[in-house]
Amino acid sequence: MNCKICKKDVEHLEKHHIVPKSRGGSDDESNLIMVCYECHGLAHDVSFSNKRGGGLIKEKIKQKNELEKQSRKWLDKNEHLVLNKMNELYQEDEDKHMLTLLLLEMHKIQAYHLADWVLNGKMKIKVQLTY
Questions:
Q1: pLDDT (tens digit, 9 = 90+) per residue, 17-50?
Q2: Would residue 8 count as lying in a domain?
Q3: How many domains does the chain divide into?
C-alpha cells in the first residue's frame, strides 16, 4: 500500500482526517487520506508542505470545498431529484425522514452527502449528539 504523501510502499497506513474531528470533520472517505506513520506525524505539523509548496491539509480542505461547490451546483440543477428522494423516504420510514430533516437543519448533512444519496442510494454521515 502506498502512502498518499510520500508514495512509499509500506505495510501499514493510518487514516488522517483532512478536517479534524475536533473541528467538525467527519469519518467520511472524502475527509480521509491514508498515510504512513512518519507522514501522519508530519501532517499535523503546520509547517508541513507538499512538493507543490502548499500544505497537505490546506490542499485537501480546498479539494473538499471544491467538492461541496460542485455538489451544490448539481443539486441546484437537480433539486427535483432530492425532493423525490425525500418523498420516497417519507413513504418508507417517517422517522428517518424526520431525522434527515433535522440533520439538514443542523447543517450536519452537506451537499455532497445529498448528491451521493440521490445518485448512489447511500448517505454516510457521523453525528455526535451531546445532551
A1: 888 887 788 888 888 999 887 888 777 665 455 5
A2: no
A3: 1
